[in-house]
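Retry 2 of 3 after timeout on previous attempt. Resubmitting structure tokens to design endpoint.
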């Protein structure tokens, strides 16, 4: 005959599953505090972030324009536009050594969904490259101010 071992009921040793209401409430309070502290700092910066993105894109386009000039001895004309950095342009001045891979994969839009403005020759430099800002119109203040590649480089 086997000796009998006293075992507690199975329900007494079952691991706890799920969270208690108190644990869930504590987590919710902690998340609420984090959102209350962090959100005001982030929310006010989206306009500033778009200006920074525009300045970075202008700088990248300017670098591509400089490479175009190194290869072809001139910048694209206003009529050829920034698309000359993506596909070989026609018209005058004709690019003699246009890079078959192009200079940009595509011409980006500014962070407000508008095209960058390009004029060659420019009034601020060999070309003018700028965005009208959030209002899409010339002039303005704050995030609505025009953003020029020449002002961004200063």
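Retry 2 succeeded. Sequence:
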């Amino acid at each position: 005959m086997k000796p009998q071992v006293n075992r507690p009921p199975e329900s007494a040793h079952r691991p706890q599953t799920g969270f208690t209401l108190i644990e869930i409430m504590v987590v919710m309070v902690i998340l609420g505090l984090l959102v209350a502290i962090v959100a005001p700092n982030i929310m006010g910066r989206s306009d500033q972030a778009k200006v920074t993105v525009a300045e970075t894109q202008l700088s990248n386009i300017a670098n591509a324009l400089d490479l175009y000039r190194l290869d072809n001895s001139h910048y694209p004309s206003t009529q050829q536009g920034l698309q000359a950095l993506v596909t070989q342009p026609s018209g005058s001045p004709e690019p003699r050594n246009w890079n078959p891979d192009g200079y940009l994969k595509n011409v980006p839009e500014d962070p407000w969904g508008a095209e960058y403005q390009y004029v060659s020759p420019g009034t601020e430099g060999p070309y003018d490259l700028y965005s009208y800002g959030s209002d899409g119109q010339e002039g303005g203040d704050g995030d609505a101010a025009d953003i020029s590649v020449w002002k961004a480089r200063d």
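Attempt log closed. The chain has a mean pLDDT of 84.
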